[in-house]
Amino acid sequence: MKLRERNLAVQKRVLTEGAEIKSFREGFKARHGIDPLDGEKFPVMKESWSWRKLATKLQGMREADAAGAFMQFLRAGVQSVTNAMYESVGTTYEDWVTVVQSTKDTELYAPNHGVAFPRQVGPSMKYPEVGAAALDIKLKNLKFGSMYVLERELLDDDQTGSFQRQAGMLGEYMKLLCEVLCYGKLASVANMTYIDYSIPVSETKPADESTYPWSQALRGGGKNRPASYTILNQAGIQAGFIGLMNQKNLQGIKMNVTPNRIIAGPSQQFDAAVLLNSSYYPSGAAAAGSTGGAFAINPIKSIADLTISRFVFKNDGTVTGDSKAWFLVDDSKPWFILQLREAISVEQEATNAGAAFELDQYRFKARSRMNADHIDPRYAWQGNDGSVTS
């Protein structure tokens, strides 16, 4: 299974089987006999669905029961809409991030760098003892959320589906938050901000690393950035491949890092496409007969997949779409984690008190608990942090 398919499967499991959602689904099914996330039995996403018709059907119950039942269905409807929108949003982090289902407040990770390299043993010599090395990392889930206020009149008179679209934005923005968080933590530069969200730098920095996650002097002799950054070009990509193919672990042993994906922003999409897809040498021809001469093959053609995201941050912490930052990664290894405790869960404020009673408003709170960060950045190469633009 490809990484994206696996990640989408994990996200769907958290959306539908997480502790909060599972409890709500079971309670709703016990009271009303249907699964609120069953799109056939509870088709709130279909154009033919009408909340007015549902309210009318419930009028046969006592007033208090009818009102309470309608609110329960409304709450279930918002959860269904937000789940559907969460799943439908096109994001790119699934291409290179490993999504895991979290079950704790704080998750522990211990990437194992193995034991020391074996040595030759001569006659009557003792076998050398080898020690193991691993990283000791923990990552706490953070809480995110927003409040959606719905005027009762909008729901009563909605003929255009605007209620579904507005409620669905809760799910869409929560999914986009994952994208922003992953790319922010990937860059880990100071003062990263998107709208009014200040994104922290990597929280998994080991105490004995001087610079992290991007360094020329990782413990064990490894490095994951060049001495001088370059724009996305053939020479820079080649340097990244050489650097990662010679990556060293905590023991100083070369690691099995096989870079296969380039991550860049929209301003470099066409340059990257030319570099990776040209049949002939993409960097300008040298003299005929020389490496890179006229009509020479493109040695980096199809050497890596390409991921373009509008949320690639610049070295000044902004995300304006013109960032020249780029990364080369091995997406087959779980080196960067997005842990989901709750993808999105919706809670409704009591409808018989407060603003709901005084102003005819329904208030819904969307909540998520998650975090993302580097687990072992030795599987990635930062070719440019955005500071070099030409």
Describe the protein in words.
This protein has 2 domains: 3-112 and 136-184 and 338-374, no CATH class; 212-333, no CATH class. The chain is 31% helix and 20% strand. It has helices at 3-17, 19-32, 51-57, 63-88, 152-157, 162-187, 234-245, 269-277, 354-359; strands at 98-101, 106-109, 112-115, 132-134, 137-140, 142-151, 192-194, 197-199, 261-264, 305-308, 326-329, 336-348, 361-374, 380-384. Helix 1 (3-17) packs across helix 2 and helix 4 (63-88) crosses helix 6. It starts with a helix and ends in a 6-residue tail after the last strand. The model has no long low-confidence stretch (mean pLDDT 88).
What layout of secondary structure does this protein have?
Layout: H1 3-17, H2 19-32, H3 51-57, H4 63-88, E1 98-101, E2 106-109, E3 112-115, E4 132-134, E5 137-140, E6 142-151, H5 152-157, H6 162-187, E7 192-194, E8 197-199, H7 234-245, E9 261-264, H8 269-277, E10 305-308, E11 326-329, E12 336-348, H9 354-359, E13 361-374, E14 380-384
Parallel strand pairs: 1-12, 9-10
Antiparallel strand pairs: 2-5, 3-4, 6-13, 7-8, 9-11, 11-14, 12-13
Tally of separate domains: 2
Order of helices and strands: HHHHEEEEEEHHEEHEHEEEHEE
Strand order across the largest sheet: 1-12-13-6
Class from helix and strand fractions? alpha+beta
The low-confidence parts are: none
- Molecular shape: elongated
Number of strands: 14
Termini separation = 39 Å
- Report the biggest beta sheet as strand number plus sense, adding barrel if it closes: 4 strands, mixed
Approximate helicity band: 25-40%
Q: What Rg do the Cα atoms give?
A: 26 Å
Strand content: 15-25%
Q: How many separate helices?
A: 9
Could you tell me the mean pLDDT? 88
